[in-house]
Automatic annotation (TrEMBL):
Ranges of residues in domain F-box: 1-45
Membrane spanning residue stretches: none
Record-level GO BP terms: ERAD pathway; glycoprotein catabolic process; SCF-dependent proteasomal ubiquitin-dependent protein catabolic process
GO cellular component, one term: SCF ubiquitin ligase complex
PANTHER family per the UniProt record, alphabetical: F-BOX ONLY PROTEIN 2 (PTHR12125:SF11), F-BOX ONLY PROTEIN 6-LIKE PROTEIN (PTHR12125)
GO molecular function, one term: ubiquitin protein ligase activity
Alphabetized InterPro entries for the sequence: F-box-assoc_dom, F-box-like_dom_sf, F-box_dom, F-box_only, Galactose-bd-like_sf
This protein's name: F-box protein 2
Amino acid sequence: METLPEPLLVRILASLPAVELVLVCRLVCSHWKSLVDGTSLWLLKSQQEGFVGDDAEEGAVDNWQTLYFLNKRKRNLIKNPNGEEGLEHWVDVQNGGDGWKIEDLPGDFGKEFPSDDVHKYFVSSFDWCSKSQVVDLRAEGYWEELMDTVQPKIVVKDWYAARCDAGCLYNVKVSLLSEHEEVLAEFASDTIAVPQDNEGEWAEITHTFADYGPGVRFIRFEHGGQDTVFWKGWYGARVTQSSVTVEP
């Protein structure tokens, strides 16, 4: 191995899993450590897995290893976003009126969701319904130094709709919390009013947190809604495909 040209050795190492590279290969010798801590290896792995194009250059990113791991870990941190598991994983559930219900798309007087992967949604009632989740970033693999120094983007998305024959109210609030659950940054939408006799179309609301400062350890996501016609049953805001992602 000592006689291999460095570019060939980098290609061989790039074929190994990232965890093996960090926890095993960088301990072999000082040369391997410099390769694992360097730029070329992680640029190559990012290209191999389609995170960047083949024309990407080493100087385009400050830390290719961090970019690789952020892309590798990227996923929706909200559990059960569409109601496939009932209200499982949702906390602080407020069941106003007749409470939350899960229905199959498109539902009565509703429209299909833009993605074929989504089959269900939550629907609120004639009094305010809300629910929330708290994401533990360390438990999800986002270590403290990463959150404090890199401060990767935190992208929040939610989808809402009304029945065509009933108006509704909807809002969403997302808070970035410290170790002791102090609010370090927050996004709160206006309370959105959808009029009666609407088109029933699904609408997306999104927000990106950036440059939020050190100390973020948790993310609290909360949304809710109700109808504006006060009919018994489930004529209120429909919500689905909620997401929180940590991105490069």
